[in-house]
Amino acid sequence: MTVGTTNRGPRKFMRFVSPRPFYLRATITIGAILLLLGGLPALAAGPFAGFGGHWSGTGTIKPSDKPAERIRCDASYRVLGSTGHEVELQLRCDSDDYKFDLSGQFRADEGNNLSGSFTERTRGTGGNISGNAQGPRLQIHVDGAGFSATMVVTTHGSSQSVSINGSGGGQFVKASMTLHRGG
Which of the listed CATH numbers 3.40.390.30, 2.40.128.20, 3.40.50.150, 2.40.50.100 matches domain 53-181? Predict the structure, then answer.
């Protein structure tokens, strides 16, 4: 409390100091320190963070011994945990002569190196994946019993482009498709 005088006599002034500026300064300081230290790793969004939900779309598939044909795909992604570093996938694709039904679980480590496994129910086979993620692009290598493939998945918002180059069983298959979330 401060005592002052005016031409009307002594006057008492009370001065209140709000704690708000201190908390604001402390919050800004802590935020700046976290930015300088690179943030908290647990808060970093993994490469699968934007994948959750149902996706569908069309594209083409070209087996080495047949003409290219249209293919329709439906995918369902379930992101596990809160960081987007692990996902479960269900993918079904159909064309006139070609079908596959794939399920898998994939994860990314702190360096965005990918690993996981999958099962393809139509052919009764499965295998492992490896690869890496850089920004919106996943570069994936698939190894299974009697076949291998390279797959590139690029995601921008609610659109995903997928290209596959695979070989096995005496065939070489190329496929490309575009999927849209909620489509």
Answer: 2.40.128.20
3-class DSSP assignment, residue 178: strand
Of 122, 119, 161, give the one whose Cα is nearest residue 142.
119
What is the C-alpha separation between 83 and 180, in angstroms, rounded?
Answer: 22
Residue 4: is its pLDDT beyond 70?
A: no
Report yes or no on whether pTM surpasses 0.85.
Answer: no
- At residue 39, does pLDDT exceed 60? no
Among the residue ranges 44-58, 127-141, 165-179, the one predicted with the least confidence is 165-179
Distance CA(138)–CA(179), nearest Å, equals 15
